[in-house]
């Protein structure tokens, strides 16, 4: 299929890049030297100038089943023909119920209900609002405080930005939400550098929650939200025992625990959800990205029966939760989601990720002695490689590495400052692992 895409035609390569204000992008640099893709299949993108580049990023942590999956495209097409749109408020369509049941089946026991939205950001804000509303319904209306974590990322809504802990994402946007606080990040390079999997050191970082409880009073705190593996900030796996400890402390104080599994969901860590890997069941899980293999926007929140049922009171004609989106459970997204979950099941992709994890980790760790590498972390089929920053130009080496990868080495990777993030589709072969690591090594040397 890739061979059939004819690059550089007027259709595939727009000649005016001015109008599109690109998200989270260095716009001027992009428009001077565009990194333009026009096609994709399996492990590869094809560029506007006809080169085939290997995708070490699953696009943006989305395409866990690889690109161009016919089964998903066909499901979307068939759905568009059959039912293009239906209102999600007060009316239903069968695939929404089917997909919700399928997702609940994959989720840890006790998490039985799915609220759909269209992105990870909406999922984060939805979970935070449900948490506050739940506390109110339970007669705990003073519990409105929300706790995130330094270096956390929960999308770009005002709620997600407020509980998020990446300074650059917050500093231009004013006071955000009132009544938010943050746990410390779980990273200590001196104690954790070059760890494969969960670091031995760092469970105690969860105890900072006791400090916040002392400071604010448990009776003011609605929920804590964390990523089981902080992805956007540059891949920080949870230390051993950290999530269990967080669960114990939240439970003890009547605080809800939300896992943001927008990245860790759908196989990234070798399980349907990271909650399963760690044997820790939160009260809510947020998801997005991999649920549709990135093919149609979709996100959602999985809640416990306890939370859902608390809302199911009052007169039957009344809306129980005044929240939702026009495109919640959009028919095309539901069709894509069902087809995606079929692929994950039939090709055993979560199991495949788990089986490949040690080989992937070992291969990536071979870059330890490459120039400027100051730490490498791996977990599941994900790795973060920290490069030393150029003095007075934090992020420049990472940015140049991403550009060198795309323009010179047929490699797509993600960056977080000077950290290179690898998170390939779960379909990759051992040969692909070798190819990716070889190319990353070349890129690291190119920006030395
Ligand atoms: N939570 C987490 C944990 C995420 O990683 C979101 C929420 C927000 O999802 P939406 O669908 O609203 O974008 C994300 C998104 C990167 C990168 O380069 C990752 C994300 C977004 C932008 C860049 O690692 N993750």
From TrEMBL:
GO molecular function: pyridoxal phosphate binding; transaminase activity
Keywords carried by this UniProt record: Aminotransferase, Pyridoxal phosphate, Transferase
Cofactor: pyridoxal 5'-phosphate
PROSITE patterns tied to this protein: AA_TRANSFER_CLASS_3
Gene3D superfamilies documented for this protein: Aspartate Aminotransferase, domain 1, Type I PLP-dependent aspartate aminotransferase-like (Major domain)
Leader peptide range in chain numbering: none
Family per similarity comment: Belongs to the class-III pyridoxal-phosphate-dependent aminotransferase family.
Stated name of the protein: Aspartate aminotransferase family protein
């Amino acid at each position: 299929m890739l061979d059939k895409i004819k690059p550089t035609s007027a259709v595939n390569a727009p000649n005016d890049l001015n109008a599109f204000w690109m998200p989270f992008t260095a716009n001027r640099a992009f428009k001077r030297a565009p990194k333009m893709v026009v096609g994709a299949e399996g492990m590869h993108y094809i560029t506007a100038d006809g080169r085939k580049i290997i995708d070490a990023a699953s696009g943006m942590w989305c395409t866990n089943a690889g690109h161009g999956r016919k089964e998903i495209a066909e499901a979307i097409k068939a759905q568009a023909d059959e039912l293009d749109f239906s209102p999600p408020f007060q009316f239903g369509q069968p695939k929404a119920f089917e997909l919700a049941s399928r997702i609940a089946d994959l989720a840890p026991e006790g998490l039985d209900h799915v609220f759909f939205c269209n992105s990870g950001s909406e999922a984060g804000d939805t979970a935070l609002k449900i948490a506050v509303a739940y506390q109110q319904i339970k007669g705990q209306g003073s519990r409105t405080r929300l706790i995130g974590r330094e270096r956390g990322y929960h999308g770009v809504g005002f709620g997600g930005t407020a509980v998020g802990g990446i300074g650059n994402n917050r500093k231009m946007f004013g006071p955000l939400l009132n009544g938010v606080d943050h746990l410390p990040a779980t990273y200590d390079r001196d104690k954790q550098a070059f760890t494969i999997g969960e670091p031995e050191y760092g469970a105690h970082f969860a105890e900072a929650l006791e400090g916040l409880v002392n400071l604010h009073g448990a009776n003011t705190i609605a929920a804590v939200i964390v990523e089981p593996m902080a992805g956007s900030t540059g891949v920080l796996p949870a230390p051993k025992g950290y999530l269990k400890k967080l669960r114990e402390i939240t439970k003890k104080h009547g605080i809800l625990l939300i896992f943001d599994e927008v990245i860790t969901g759908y196989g990234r860590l070798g399980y349907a959800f990271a909650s399963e890997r760690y044997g820790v069941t939160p009260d809510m899980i947020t998801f997005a990205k991999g649920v549709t293999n990135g093919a149609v926007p979709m996100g959602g929140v999985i809640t416990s029966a306890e939370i859902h049922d608390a809302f199911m009171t009052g007169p039957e004609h009344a809306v129980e939760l005044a929240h939702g989106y026009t495109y919640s459970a959009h028919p095309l997204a539901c069709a894509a989601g069902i087809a995606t979950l079929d692929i994950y099941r039939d090709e055993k992709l979560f199991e495949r990720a788990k089986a490949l994890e040690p080989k992937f980790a070992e291969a990536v760790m071979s870059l330890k002695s490459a120039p400027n590498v100051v730490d490498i972390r791996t977990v599941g089929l994900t790795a973060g490689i920290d490069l030393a920053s150029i003095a007075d130009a934090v992020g420049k080496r990472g940015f140049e590495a991403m550009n060198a990868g795309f323009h010179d080495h047929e490699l797509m990777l993600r960056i977080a400052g000077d950290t290179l993030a690898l998170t390939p589709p779960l379909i990759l072969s051992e040969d692909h692992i070798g190819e990716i690591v070889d190319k990353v090594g070349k890129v690291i040397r190119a920006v030395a």
